[in-house]
Design goal:
564 residues; alpha/beta; 5-stranded parallel beta sheet; 15 helices
Length: 564
């Protein structure tokens, strides 16, 4: 049995009237493994830690149990302070007798004291039976790989270079800039896109820390956090890069609505991107224009809102209304999506210059009429209940951005996920730029359709997340947690008893478990750099061959015994 020191914190007497510390000391003294019971007024002040460490050393104890506040309060601070003073982390236990005990049982002091005793005894049982996971570290390659040189990728590359890290920037096309190069102006500030891209492109060309690879295609990705090896083709030549982090900023592609509203059959029925091209080359000729929203979006095949289509129509409709005297502009919609005060003002300003909005229902879409050229559009106005016939010489279809065709293939190489539509998927909304693989980030329209401004912000944010990995010379597997602080441990397999059933492989959400062939049979193995200590594998193992040492069966069993 390990010798244990127990420190009971009174939190400056905050719950003296609820928890009976004399009772706790008397009960704990019955346990022969406890060599020190110290009741203190506080543990979180600077001089408290020095006194605590001194008492631990004098008691010659093997492990320490802190009975104080929760990890959500200052419990973690006490533990971290002890670690800094040389107490090994796995030899420290923390029990919450404040928030989870005294505070919620203030009307029942006797019950609170008994509960505190049980919690402390469970903590002691955990310390006595807790084992320590093996840990590994990888040497970090202090450079980043960015896939995609659109606004998000450019912003990420420049931000990383500003912090002093080398960047390798891969782009599928010949030039950087992405889809932003194909349009004339950006909403809502009506900025010139060339001017918006220019400072980033100059930095890409002139900064020695940034290497640009045009016309690139990923071939394979191997390795783990801090140590990825990526093979790719660039302008027909094979190349290989070792990188500490990977940022995916591959953007999305345009949906072409063939067969919808006469597109591809009637001249002057075009998409927003074709409208932009006509503006850029000076070929746009229109007096009467109709924009139709949600073409190929918010339907059975693509039920999502692409978020950028409405603001783009507002931008282009406003441009026609301002630049073409006597021109008429209609926007036919199922609900204008302009979240936030800036875009709402953008909508109001568009209304004020004479752009007309007509709402239609999905069940009664507009009808575009014309043989060679478009002649008019008929639409049932859902607000007034009147069917309207609008003469026009140009129909502009607002179509959604859709995922790139190679997203699924790239996701498999990177061992990350795509969502049900095909965009790269984050872990969960609170971490929108992070994937399930540490050190791989997504930004811009690769994760969801966004404006150029938001793409740039996400690129900068992804770069700052990447810096937290690149600034480390080595990364230990134990630090790769999905919650604040260290993770609870790594799964460990006993090969002799593993039957190779594969349950753990199927249950692991992080692809950390896999089967390896040893002689003539298969056994499970765990990649500690991917394991997050979630315990899913433990719950599905039929014979207990896979365990998390810090939360093993024996420890949990002894804790339950102490509780009941």
């Amino acid at each position: 049995m390990a010798k244990i020191s127990v420190f009971l914190c009174k939190c400056f007497g905050e719950f003296d009237n609820t928890v009976d510390f004399d009772f706790l000391s008397k009960e704990l003294s019955k346990d022969p493994s406890i060599v020190l019971i110290s009741t203190v007024d506080s543990l979180c002040l600077e001089n408290d830690i020095e006194k605590t460490v001194s008492r631990i050393k004098k008691s010659n104890s093997d492990k320490v149990l802190i009975a104080a506040c929760s990890t959500l309060s200052r419990g973690d601070l006490v533990v971290e302070s002890l670690v800094k003073e040389g107490v090994e982390r796995h030899k420290i236990g923390l029990v919450d007798i404040r928030e989870g005990c005294a505070w919620i049982h203030g009307d029942n002091p006797e019950g609170a004291s008994k509960k505190a005793k049980d919690l402390i005894n469970m903590g002691i049982a955990a310390l006595q039976n807790r084992e320590l996971s093996d840990d590994i570290s990888v040497t970090v390659h202090p450079n980043a790989l960015i896939i995609g040189a659109g606004p998000a990728g450019l912003a990420a590359a420049v931000s990383l270079a500003e912090t002093g890290f080398k960047v390798n920037l891969l782009e599928r096309s010949k030039d950087p800039g992405g889809m932003l190069r194909l349009i004339s102006r950006c909403y809502p500030g009506d900025e010139d896109t060339a001017g918006k891209l220019e400072p980033y492109i100059k930095e890409i060309e002139n900064n020695p820390l940034i290497t640009f690879y045009p016309q690139s295609k990923i071939i394979s990705v191997e390795g783990n956090t801090g140590n990825f090896t990526v093979k790719f083709l660039s302008q027909g030549k094979d190349s290989s890069i070792q990188s500490g982090v990977i940022i995916i900023s591959t953007g999305a592609k345009i949906f072409f609505p063939t067969g919808l509203y006469g597109y591809g059959e009637i001249k002057n029925v075009i998409t927003q991107m074709e409208f932009e091209r006509q503006i850029l080359d000076g070929s746009l000729e229109t007096k009467k224009t109709v924009f139709i929203q949600c073409v190929g979006a918010r339907d059975k095949e693509r039920p999502y809102c692409s978020t950028i289509c409405c603001p783009i129509s507002l931008k282009n409709a406003s441009r026609i209304a301002k630049d073409i005297p006597g021109g008429s502009v209609f926007i036919l919609h199922r609900g204008i999506m302009t979240p936030g005060s800036t875009l709402e003002k953008y909508y109001r300003d568009t209304l004020s210059i004479g752009v007309q909005f007509i709402r239609f229902e999905e069940e009664q879409p507009p009808q575009v009429t014309g043989s060679d050229h478009v002649e008019f559009v008929e639409v049932y106005d859902a607000i007034t209940g009147i069917k309207r016939k609008i003469e026009t010489d140009l129909v502009v279809l607002s179509t959604p951005l859709v995922p790139n065709n190679d997203n699924v293939k790239l996701a498999k190489m990177l061992d990350i996920e795509v969502d049900l539509y095909g965009f790269f998927s984050e872990i969960y909304p609170m971490h929108p730029l992070e994937t399930k693989t540490d050190g791989i980030f997504i930004c811009g329209s690769a994760r969801w359709p966004v404006s150029s401004d938001n793409a740039i912000l996400q690129g900068k944010a992804a770069a700052m997340k990447a810096v937290s990995y690149l600034r480390q010379s080595k990364i230990a597997a134990s630090t790769l947690s999905r919650v604040p602080g260290l993770k609870s441990g790594h799964a460990r397999v006993v090969p002799e008893s593993c039957t190779g059933c594969g349950n753990c492989v199927a249950a692991c959400p992080f692809n950390a478990c896999h089967l390896e062939k040893i002689k003539n049979r298969y056994t499970s193995a765990v990649n500690m750099m991917k394991c997050k200590g979630c315990g899913n594998c433990v719950s599905v193992c039929p014979n207990g061959s896979i365990q998390i040492p810090e939360h093993n069966y024996r420890m949990v069993g002894e804790m339950i015994k102490m509780a009941f």
